[in-house]
Design a protein that fits this description.
The structure holds two protein chains of two kinds. By secondary structure, chain A is α/β, with parallel strands linked by helices. Chain A contains 17 helices and 18 strands. Chain A folds into three domains: 116 residues, 3-Layer(aba) Sandwich (Rossmann fold), CATH 3.40.50.2300; 173 residues, P-loop containing nucleotide triphosphate hydrolases (Rossmann fold, 3-Layer(aba) Sandwich); 104 residues, Orthogonal Bundle (Helicase, Ruva Protein, domain 3). The longest helix of chain A is centred in the first third of the chain and has 31 residues. The chains are: A alpha/beta, B mainly alpha.
Chain lengths: 417, 95
């Protein structure tokens, strides 16, 4: 963050310059109002740290003028007076915060980081908004259909909170991608994102995987291990297939969520955890609760904000965009020069039911890419991978698609994980 | 002793002039004290990075000396003005 420091006291100016540099900023320091105006023009800072009283001017006036020219400039006003009037004046001039002399380095650090983090988030949001407007993308989620636009809208809003989100949707619909996008858009974006599939680990191991264990707590525990909860500290933990967790472990998870502390397996100390929990299931969440797959109290803890992802067949109009997104992604890795789709190849993709959803589509695109000779993915390649599909109709949403249950090809079945 | 007791019994608000003197005193001392804190922090950072903290410590010491000088000057001014304020107020207190 480019930071202009305006302070007439030379030693303090130098101290601020070094402190800002140590905090990861790019400082420039001047000692007068006149030099400040020059530096604002030449240096184009993101942040202005300005002393309220300068020998040749008023720090608040500098801030006001600077913000008139550059409204997204953040300001920190440094004042030697604890008067409330000065604080109000500083905020009126557009200061994000003000610091009282004698300065405390920890206070400067906190304010600087808060501003830097907000700016980073705003930039990230702008980038994502741009992506969404231009390409129908939000992070790694792709879609221009009405149903996906609604998902994006919800996702952007919920990302700004700390609320637990329970993501549901059929297998392959992109639940982990949605969780990553929430994390990326959240205030925790700079912190770890840890994904854990509760259905992929033996029930006896889940407890130590999640909460960690102390050395000697069970046979084979030859050293202490930090669990996923601690690994995700200050960040986000994504628990996939949450309904596959044993009832005993669900009780433990509930306790961690309620008390915000955990105890490692074999440990005697409560460890404080600050983790945002996102969870997912491919079942209907309420049904899973009624069937006893998930405890009612845990369900309500996790389902503060429900997010349902649609099956791909509910958004066929997104297939051309998704197919092109995956082709580009694969081309970036493979660089085989497969550059375009034959329109009828896309038609064939749109005629398939996609029981494996977006994940299945990606696999088919990858296979088509590998099988393609030349720069165009032709309809014959898709027909070979998805036999029985037609190349005649486009991808417009079909008002009443005839109920048709094709047996997926071996290739498709093996991809529908 | 008696004088100070009288003042406590009749706590009159400080006149604007002495308030501004006090504000200036605090302001003068606050700048070098801020510099001391920042340069000590810089010295600690340098030590943590295995670098030489001498320059930061030298600046911190110089600023501390400046703060002390400013403090002494401000203290004398404050004491003198407090004395003259008491002189000015004495007839009113008696009445």
């Amino acid at each position: 963050m480019k930071t202009l420091i305006v302070e007439d006291d030379a030693a303090l100016r130098r101290g601020l310059e070094e402190a800002v540099e140590a905090l990861g900023g790019e400082p420039r320091a001047v000692g007068t109002a006149r030099h400040a105006m020059d530096a604002l023009r030449d240096f184009q800072p993101h942040l202005l740290i300005v002393d309220i009283s300068l020998p040749d001017g008023d720090g608040l006036e500098i801030l006001k003028k600077a913000r008139e020219a550059q409204p997204d400039l953040d300001g920190i006003v440094v004042t030697g007076s604890s008067s409330i009037d000065h604080a109000i004046e500083a905020l009126r001039a557009g200061a994000a915060d003000y610091l009282l002399k004698p300065l405390r380095p920890a206070q400067l650090e906190a304010v600087f980081h808060r501003i830097a983090e907000r700016r980073r988030l705003e930039l990230e949001l702008d980038t994502l908004r741009g992506e969404l407007a231009e390409t129908g993308r939000l992070g790694d989620m792709v879609g221009r259909s009405g149903v996906m636009q609604s998902v994006f809208e919800v996702l952007r809003k919920v990302a700004q909170t700390n609320a637990p989100v329970l993501i549901s949707g059929p297998s392959g619909s992109g639940k982990e991608v949605a969780a990553r996008t929430i994390h990326r858009l959240s205030r925790r974006a700079g912190k770890p994102f840890v994904a854990f599939n509760c259905g992929a680990v033996s029930p006896t191991l889940i407890e130590s995987e999640l909460f960690g264990h102390e050395r000697g707590s069970f046979t084979g525990a030859d050293r202490r291990r930090v669990g996923y909860f601690e690994e995700a500290s200050a960040g986000t933990l994504f628990l996939d297939e949450i309904t596959e967790m044993s009832p005993e472990l669900q009780v433990r998870l509930l306790r961690v969520l309620e008390e915000r502390t955990l105890r490692r397996v074999g440990g005697s100390q409560d460890i404080r955890v600050d983790v945002r929990l996102l969870s997912a299931t491919n079942r209907d969440p309420e049904e899973a609760m009624h069937e006893g797959k998930i405890r009612e109290d845990l369900f309500y803890r996790l389902n503060v904000f429900p997010l349902r992802l649609p099956a791909l067949k509910e958004r066929l109009e997104d297939i051309p965009l998704l197919a092109e997104y995956f082709r580009r992604e694969i081309e970036e890795q493979e660089k085989a020069g497969v550059l375009v789709w034959h329109p009828k190849a896309i038609n064939a993709l749109c005629d398939h039911d996609w029981p494996g959803n977006v994940r299945e589509l990606r696999n088919i695109v990858h296979r088509a890419y590998i099988l393609t000779e030349g720069d165009t993915i032709v309809p014959e390649t898709i027909l070979r991978l998805l036999p029985g599909t037609s190349t005649e109709e486009g991808c417009e949403p079909k008002k009443s698609k005839p109920a048709r249950r094709k047996t997926p090809s071996r290739a498709v079945r093996s991809s529908a994980r | 002793m008696g004088e100070s007791l009288d003042i406590r019994r009749n706590p009159a608000p400080a006149p604007p002039e002495s308030k501004s003197r006090l504000r200036q005193f605090l302001h003068d001392v606050a700048a070098p004290l801020s510099a001391v804190a920042l340069h000590l922090e810089a010295a600690a950072r340098r030590v943590a990075q295995g670098a030489d903290p001498t320059r930061s410590l030298d600046i911190a010491r110089a600023e501390l000396a400046r703060a002390f000088e400013l403090f002494e000057t401000g203290r004398e001014e404050l004491l003198n003005s407090a004395e003259s304020d008491r002189e000015d107020r004495r007839p009113d207190d008696r009445s």
